[in-house]
Input
Amino acid sequence: MNPLLLGIFKRDMQIAFQQKAELVQPLMFLLMVVTLFPLGVSPSPETLQRIGPGVIWIAAILSSLLGMERLFRDDFIDGSLEQYTLSGMSLPAVATVKVLAHWLVSFVPLLILSPLLAMFLNLSVDMFIALMLTLLIGTPLLSLIGAIAVGLTVGLARGGLLLALLLIPVFIPLLIFATSAVDSAALQLPYHPQLAIIGAMLLLAAAAAPFAIAYSLKVSQN
Amino acid sequence: MSGLYASGLTCIKRDRVLFDDFSFNLNAGELVYLRGPNGAGKTSLLRILTGLSSPERGDVTFNGVNISSNPSLYYQALIYLGHKSALNGALSAIDNLRFWLAQHGIQNKTLKQISDIDSTIYQVLEHLGLVGLEDVPVRFLSAGQQRRVALSRLWLKTATVWVLDEPFTALDTAGVILLERKMKQHVADGGMIITTSHQALSPEAGTHRCVDLEYRF
Output
């Protein structure tokens, strides 16, 4: 674990914090998209409360697509990926560590920002708690699944839009269950079944995605 | 059975056969200089030898073991330097090398003589004429200086097999001589090197065997 932590995790963190613009831009995008809805749809508190969970989740998915490429793009372009492959470490473990670093720098700020977004859209406290929980379990899933698609498209020139086209359909189930959990919370109904399903999807992804990411990276380099 | 053996390699890229049934061996204490025109498949061959790409047919064995059956054993003994420098432009030379060493599991135990990895890296960078540039983000260095940082891995990791793809690109004459001397010393110590270059190796690099790849249609 030591070489993984020291060599990859710390490196990724250091790079992320040296390219702050790339970290802040998706967040600014998220904030702007969310603020557009009261202006464009309707500023009435009831409407906002009804569309709020969906708006936040859709904005989170779209903004995550903007920063997703960062996962492997630079490493592919400068050849670091070749050196990972030749380092003798298992590539799935490398992929897991990189996904974890990516989640920490791109989604944890989103979680911190989410109370502000909830206030913008007039979410009740119950709804906000449910939203927070779905984001907490759901966003690692975005990172894991996104990383497979990034691994596949990293070798292509201008893979950015293709990445979005590949990923958005895959994220539909997550969006359905996440927003349904928040809707249940709005009606004071239990929402743990939805959370459990998202949790199951996350566990499945956590078990299988590292191998899929490793394989897709291998294919991209061949 | 010590050495790197490749037998019956066939590589097809975009429906063009680059080479087929190509066999090749690299023994301890040998420098192989791979020649061929652009597009002949030199880089493809080197990537197959490192296991980064897989050939259409054929095997690569290192010390009698197929490299795909026990990659981590092979990778411990390998340094591959490709066209790409594998340096992140936002990080400094010292950070890049420190993380590279950690990734390759090179801890203090393999650098017994000097306990501190950082001071070893500083010494190597100094030897390569990069004094004062250790803390500058790599993207601000010139192409030749970046190449020197990439090459410093040869001084930092003890590995038997060196696979070098155009290592002399962008280097000045002093840099070329420095690298050729290092290669000669490595071969004298029983190491193996396979390298490509479009300039002939000078006598500084010591004796070497040439292998030619032809361009095929």
